[in-house]
Amino acid sequence: MSSTQATGRRHPDSAESKPSREDFGRMFMARLHEAGMTEEVVFSRDEFSVRLKHSDEPARDAWVVRLENTYREFFLAPPGLRDEVVTRLVRVAMLPPDATPPDFETAVPNLLPAVRCRSGYEIDLLRARIGGEAYTGAAQEPLAVHLGVRVTYALPDAIMGLGPKEFAKWNVTAEQAMQAAMGRLAALSHPFVRANGCRGCFYSAANDDYDSSRMLLPQLCETVQVRGNHIAMVPATSHFLLAGDNDPKALKIMVSEAEAAFGLPQGLSGYAFRLIDGEWRPWLPPKSHVLYPRFRALQLVTAYQAYRAQHDLLVAQERSKPADETCFVAGYGLEAGKSNRPERSAVAWTQGVPTLLPQVDAIYFVQGNADRGLRPVGRIAWDRVLDVMGDRMEPLGLYPERYRVRCFPTDGELARLMSA
Length: 420
Hints:
Blueprint: H1 21-34, E1 41-44, E2 49-52, E3 64-66, H2 68-76, H3 82-93, H4 104-107, E4 111-117, H5 118-130, E5 141-143, E6 147-154, E7 159-161, H6 164-170, H7 174-187, E8 192-194, E9 202-204, H8 218-222, E10 230-233, E11 241-244, H9 248-261, E12 272-276, E13 279-283, H10 292-319, E14 328-329, E15 333-336, E16 342-350, E17 355-358, E18 362-369, E19 373-381, H11 382-389, E20 394-395, E21 402-405, H12 411-419
Parallel strand pairs: 14-17, 16-18
Antiparallel strand pairs: 1-2, 2-3, 4-6, 5-6, 6-7, 8-9, 9-11, 10-11, 10-12, 12-13, 15-16, 17-21, 18-19, 20-21
Helix pairs in contact: 2-3, 5-10
């Protein structure tokens, strides 16, 4: 299997100008001190974070900055925009413990809902679970399967995600805070402009750091005239694109804009979504559509990034288990199609190796062992494998989902799989 990349974005594993984790941690700590941090901070390689070494203030004891998401965003960004990536995290890290007001009524004018990539939040949840800790970060609800929405507090130089600590301080529920934030969003202006002058492709031109949040207002989106059903993309937090599924020219402009924006700092998602009965659902054009490979490539690279971040945490978790209970954490492979774009996802399932499988398009079955040698049996579509082996593929309840498999198919089952 070969890995590749979507147009406009370096492959997620590219080593080009990529600092080590230790180097990145040292750079971030230096930037904190340049910004005025007077307390001593330390870098933890195991959890890839920066913490206070000690503090006389109980409220500061829990101060910790996780670096995983920013690290990935840093080396995916063009060199000229990498400083902006670090600066944004420094601003958030330097916020005082009392950055939000003491009462809800005072906070409401600065509350807004933010659309985010779901995987970043899910990785933080997984990290807390593996560490045996309670998750104390920003609260987030799933949106259209692959996205999430959270309540934020807008500051002059930073956007702060809110969670249980702030809601408890204000004596409100997460639902009440979200309702207030949605009310503030609805009250903003919502200008849409033609993309590249195209009559059928539009983008949000609010330029207020919440353009992608307009996706949360489906009734607003329906007022934008497109040909066919409304298709949306949010390739970055500052980008919200709309087109119609019956407008090839508009869709071509949309996917081109998404390919470019997905490579910027604050890249969000390469998925496209269709508005059906007031709800956004993941969408792809038909495989026969000329633009299918480009939309699919963006999906695959987004999934690759999510699985890659999840992979390292699961590897660490499996290493902590007794040898007879561990599973191999399989990688999410991308296979190239025309124009060197990712065309499908695949994974290898090897006989005798308990494995955590990512959900992919196809599985390569491998028989044998280290002594007799390994030989590939064949490549089978995921849905077909699920039909035959589903009762022995245990979903873990993660996002993105993985399946624990311990029993390799019998010869008879392999024959059934291969006969499809």
